[in-house]
Amino acid sequence: MTRVLVVEDDPQLVRALVINLQARQYGVDPAPDGATGLRIAAARQPDVVILDLGLPDMDGVDVIKSLRGWTRVPILVLSARRASDEKVAALDAGADDYITKPFSMDELLARLRAAVRRTEAAPLTPAAVLVATDDFTIDLLAKRATRGGHDVRLTPTEWHLLEILVSNPGRLITQKHLLQEVWGASKSNKTHYLRVYMAQLRRKLETNPAHPRYLITEPGMGYRFES
Length: 227
Ligand code: CA
Prior knowledge:
With 227 residues, the chain is α/β, with parallel strands linked by helices.
């Protein structure tokens, strides 16, 4: 049974989540605040965490940081806030995905399934070094990209960027994270670098670079590789 820890202080929403999750054979542990959530996480080792960012006792981002000190459990953030800063902070702290309130239960369940699937598919020591799509193949070990049977020439910077994205399929990677990883902390606000390099990658890999199918932009947030 997949165990879900729900850290949320809105009792009505908790009730709706518990009913919907239990109906789909999930085991659910509700926690009304961050401290309780952290305690239950340590005691019960959930398979996935649903976490509200606005908690009565502590900031949800600090809950993520605490969890990431010892576990890689997938964390799906619930955010009532429109400000993308909050979501970016949550993703940078180590959340896997976010969903903005109000949300449909179907969407939440789909994202939950995807988060669980990703951990099952991505063991801690990555064995999958070959990422194959319908249009191109990336060999992470040989550092080789091919499209239509031909090698695609990538610059070291393009490669580094692509490597991070394809190693995290389906997962939103923030602009800040990509900039820090590829260009260093001092360039973490140079979002135009990303626009330029992502455009180059799309030209080299996508069939229709203007309407990318694999290298997806999440406006104001970051990028996502969809296999
Ligand atoms: Ca709340």
